[in-house]
Design goal:
- With 348 residues, the protein is an alpha+beta fold.
- The chain has two domains: 163 residues, 3-Layer(aba) Sandwich (Aminopeptidase), CATH 3.40.630.30; 166 residues, Gcn5-related N-acetyltransferase (GNAT) (Aminopeptidase, 3-Layer(aba) Sandwich).
- The chain has twelve helices and 15 strands.
- Helix 3 runs antiparallel to helix 9 and helix 7 crosses helix 10.
- The model has no long low-confidence stretch (mean pLDDT 94).
Length: 348
């Protein structure tokens, strides 16, 4: 593990897309530079695996008053097997980085590591929380459009046709200020129904612009008779795409615009060469139907693919056990409260 060279940084996004996981939008230059404007500093490293493969990883570093630095690797480093992940952890530990904790969020499948002893033997501790969801639904965009559509639940196909027949249209739009304002209002309307918490408008609009300018995102609107009903901000890198943000107004919900919105977003991404669409954010398998706040999200997203993909979640490496014990008991809670008073409103 060593800091990325200037040559590495010049082709950073290519290196991220070439990682074993196929790349992550949250590991790109645009995301790291954006987070630098909101309390974090990106640190970019190259891991050299034993078999000669190189893995690029972007760490975000934040200084917490009276505690020290926390290091967070969002959706990374980009490996997917337990063996590769253990090697990544070992190289990170050998660097003796000055941190209260180093939080890994690698997309190793939970099914591939039913026993967590391997992680514990590597010196890792399951994090108090996952900044995002550890479970998702992924739609395979590699088949033909007809085959993809046929794979959806019957009600999803019916609602897509209903929106089309009702005159709903979906189009990619430029990230102009008026469009970004509408997108945030769509998200506010959705948050008012779901109560999941919302960062400030400036935060969203900053990264919407940054990722769109980097050529790794697209804003799409569903409209009816000139009226915007729903919107999606999709990100992508290499052959992977994500449903990053979305929202809809309460009006004309009988037209089922959100179903057509998702389908046309998938079609748009497929035309960019994306073969995997991550819908992001559903309950873990054992939480479905238990009254989890994300049950509604699963009910909707499962109509495009009922299979939940579950990762191992966030695991912490703690150079100092004493500092880390304080962090788990008091520090993270206090830091989160302080962050809630800052412009970003969230610690991570």
């Amino acid at each position: 593990m060593h800091p990325a060279t200037d040559a590495d940084l010049a082709r950073w996004n290519e290196l991220i897309a070439a990682n074993p996981d196929g790349g992550q939008a949250l590991q790109t230059l645009a995301w790291g530079d954006f987070k630098a404007r909101w309390g974090w500093q990106p640190r970019r490293y190259i891991y050299e695996l034993a078999d000669g493969r190189r893995v690029a990883a972007q760490w975000l570093v934040r200084s917490v008053p009276l505690q020290g630095e926390i290091w967070y690797c969002p959706k990374g480093p980009g490996v997917t097997t337990p063996i590769d992940f253990r090697e990544i952890v070992a190289q990170t530990r050998a660097l003796n980085l000055p941190a209260v904790l180093l939080r890994f969020e690698s997309e190793v499948l939970d099914d591939d590591m039913p026993s967590k002893e391997l992680l514990q033997h590597a010196g890792l501790v399951r994090a108090n929380r996952d900044p995002g969801s550890k479970s998702t639904i992924v739609v395979d965009l590699a088949p033909s459009e007809d085959e993809i559509l046929a794979s959806f639940n019957q009600s999803a196909r019916r609602n897509i046709r209903k929106a089309q027949n009702g005159g709903v249209t979906v189009a990619a739009v430029e990230p102009t200020q008026p469009h970004l304002d509408i997108m945030f209002e769509l998200m506010r309307a959705t948050e008012a129904r779901a109560h999941y918490g919302l960062r400030p408008k400036a935060y969203f609009q900053d990264y919407w612009r940054a990722q769109a300018e980097a050529g790794q995102a697209q804003l799409l609107f569903a409209t009816h008779e000139g009226e915007v009903l729903a919107g999606i901000f999709a990100t992508y890198i290499g052959q992977r795409g994500w449903y990053k943000d979305g929202g809809s107004f309460d009006k004309k919900r009988e037209l089922q615009a959100s179903y057509l919105m998702q389908w046309e977003t998938m079609r748009w991404l497929k035309h960019q060469g994306v073969t995997s669409y991550d819908m992001v954010g559903v309950p873990n398998r054992d939480q479905v139907g238990t009254g989890d706040a994300r049950d509604g999200l699963y009910s909707f997203k499962s109509k495009f693919n009922p299979e939940i993909t579950e990762f191992i979640g966030c695991w912490d490496l703690a150079p100092s056990s004493q500092k880390y014990r304080f962090w788990r008991k008091f520090g993270e809670r206090v830091a989160s409260r302080l962050a809630n008073r800052a412009p970003e409103k969230f610690l991570y």
